[in-house]
From TrEMBL:
<dbReference type="Pfam" id="PF00232">
    <property type="entry name" value="Glyco_hydro_1"/>
</dbReference>
<keyword id="KW-0326">Glycosidase</keyword>
<dbReference type="InterPro" id="IPR017853">
    <property type="entry name" value="GH"/>
</dbReference>
<keyword id="KW-0378">Hydrolase</keyword>
<dbReference type="InterPro" id="IPR033132">
    <property type="entry name" value="GH_1_N_CS"/>
</dbReference>
<comment type="similarity">
    <text>Belongs to the glycosyl hydrolase 1 family.</text>
</comment>
<dbReference type="InterPro" id="IPR001360">
    <property type="entry name" value="Glyco_hydro_1"/>
</dbReference>
<protein>
    <submittedName>
        <fullName>Glycoside hydrolase family 1 protein</fullName>
        <ecNumber>3.2.1.-</ecNumber>
    </submittedName>
</protein>
<dbReference type="GO" id="GO:0016798">
    <property type="term" value="F:hydrolase activity, acting on glycosyl bonds"/>
</dbReference>
Amino acid sequence: MPKGFLWGGATAANQYEGGYNEGGRGLSIADILTGGSLNKKRRLTPPKPLEDEFYPNHEATDFYHHWKEDIAMFSEMGFKVYRMSISWSRIFPKGDELVPNEEGLKFYDNVIDELLDKGIEPLITISHYENPLHLSLEYGGWKNRKLIDFYLRFAEVLFKRYKGKVKYWLTFNEINMLTEPFGAVFCAGMLEEKDNTELNRYQAMHHQLVASALAVKMAHEIDANNKVGCMLAYHNMYPYTCHPEDILFAQKYAQLHNFIAGDVHVRGKYPGFAKRYYEENNIKLAVGREDYEILQQGTVDFISISYYSSACVSIVKAGEKTDGNGTANIKNPNLEASDWGWQIDAVGLRYVLNQIYDRYELPIMIVENGLGAVDVLSEDGAVHDAYRIDYMRKHIEQMKEAISDGVKLIGYTCWGCTDIVSASTGEVKKRYGLIYVNKHDDGSGDLSRMPKDSFYWYKRVIESNGAKL
């Protein structure tokens, strides 16, 4: 890999941190999401958690009490960067206060200082799937324009508090998930099923795009060294057949689900295909007088993506369905799949990286890529996750190919570097980590940590800057 390549790992506070009612933290939308499984979806229980339900995010895998131990393990692996998110409701318990919670800030002071002490660059996601619950109950989530000001107050506190310590920022996690029904709760905090309409989701996305642009401008004004990126969930969909209608449909799918948000973030304006889609689907956005100028002035410095799998789409032929990251489309007969049905397509990552770089010509970070699998403790007490090593090896090989193609790839943070709670299913059983956490879906486990085989493999990869796979 190029000199200075940023190897590391990634997590999100709502899936990892725990301590949901400690340190002055308020409730977030993640705190009213029950556990789930392959066959049972997570449920929302507003306006508060119920006593007879299990909420895996409340404790998650307890970074709140294990942060020093975990960062030491990240350092042992050789991380150059660690992507984390800051719990909004830990800083502003309701989300609309004027004064932040100092105890919450001090927790992140300790975490960030420890990362820097270990030579690990913090990469901070400002908003990652856990809007303060009060903002949903009182304002209806991001369909309400008032959330822009609340978000900017939160962002300003972070930019000023961590000036000179944090250089890399992401404004919103997987903002383009708002093109899918999945995004209504997770991205926008819209809890009522009746609110999950295309109009509301695209309105919420517009508000977030405006907030992101204003945050980018603010970050640059507070510290000229700040680098602020967008984060897209990359939906890689191939045409299921070679019929011209399928080719066109796959192109339109990418435009709608990947490039509307991407174009606004990078080019500062809505593309023509978005305007046509909005007109044809009666999506009439409420746009502020200065919004388009704001979008032009707040373009990002780099692009980050999540990439896990691919699938197929078609309008001329039916096919067996397969799951993915917030999507469900047609199964590709040429690919294998994970335990959760996500199709494994390492070559697709090279295709995606080329597609993004050809379009935008900005540096790219892969900030989520990993394999959710059922990990079993062997008789020797270890986790021999050769399948995860194989997954990561093949994707890193394709990253090298993309760099040879001319793509400017600057970093890779595997998801999640330690076991966490799955966002889609609310399970710990769906493990992503290179570090095993003794925590289970019935709430049992002592939360002890242990390296998996992939931990030692990734350590060698980083030591060799990708030469030894």
